[in-house]
Amino acid sequence: LQDHDAKEPEQLRKxxxxxxxxxxxxxxxxxxxxQWGTLTDCVVMRDPNSKRSxxxxxxxxxxVSEVDEAMKARPHKVDGRVVEPKRAVSREDSNKPGAHLTVxxxxxxxxxxxxxxYHIREYFEKYGKxxxxxxxxxxxxxxxxGFCFVSFDDHDTVDKIVAQKFxxxxxxxxxxxxxxxxxxxxxxxxxxxxxxxxxxxIIGPGGNYGGGPGYGGGRGGYGGGGPGYGxxxxxxxGSCDGGGGNYNDFGNYGGQQSNYGPMKGNNFxxxxxxxxxxxxxxxxGGxxxxxxRRY
Length: 295
Known about the structure:
- Keywords: Repeat, RNA-binding.
- It comes from Dicentrarchus labrax (European seabass).
- Residues 13-96, 104-183 form the RRM domain.
- One of its GO terms (biological process) is mRNA splicing, via spliceosome.
- By secondary structure, this protein is an alpha+beta fold.
- The protein has two domains: 2-88, RRM (RNA recognition motif) domain (Alpha-Beta Plaits), CATH 3.30.70.330; 105-250, 2-Layer Sandwich (Alpha-Beta Plaits), CATH 3.30.70.
- It has six helices and ten strands.
- The protein has helices at residues 2-6, 26-33, 64-72, 117-124, 155-163, 182-192, and strands spanning 14-18, 39-46, 53-61, 76-78, 81-87, 105-109, 130-137, 144-152, 167-169, 172-178.
- The chain has a five-stranded antiparallel beta sheet with strand order 2-3-1-5-4. Strands 7-8-6-10-9 form a five-stranded antiparallel beta sheet.
- Strand 7 (130-137) and strand 8 form a beta hairpin.
- The longest helix is centred in the middle third of the chain and has 11 residues, at 182-192.
- It is elongated, with a radius of gyration of 20 Å.
């Protein structure tokens, strides 16, 4: 136990491996991924009755830097089949909207008036290559609305960032989430039955992100009853993609509940929730886990 406690958190050292051949065993999975570091655990998830592979598994490295090396070495082919490695999502985070989606853009809340673009760039560029930063401002006054979007060239950078629980930018604590488009949120709602999505708290047309019952105002983080971002008529202008577009496509993280829950969904099932791979990955969790996508 002492040795384990001295290591970086296990969750940050673990990769989900999707798209496995049904012929892949723990031995062949280990043989491939141990090329990039020492594996402390390796498992292929199987049906408890038939023992047939479910087509996904997990590998855990001894340190985060080995995970980084493995992700840099993509694409990976195991037993002749290209597989999809992703940083594993914790059971705690598995229920959050979009936790398992592959995106290259993040939403950053809690941006203060004295925080400039270079503060944001200096903070996030250590994780990976930044494509674009858009700090949202009031169109009429130019006053910061308290949040921004940052786009990267690789979804793994986003996965690595959101796995970190705390982010301090220019001496201010910030909240970071995957930025989900209306289409992605709609797809989640369709695939999962229903999703009670949080509001991003933008307090009215003249207010800032934060304050009141919104940012940090409850266990779920962004509570609040203000309209979702991008739901302000013509949006907030500016677009990473050029053309002077707006963020209406990322508009209104609707729903009537904060605290992210509840979320219904299909999951891969079969592994009881008491085990180390339960929760979102097995039958014990209502979180959908990795079950919304076929491999």
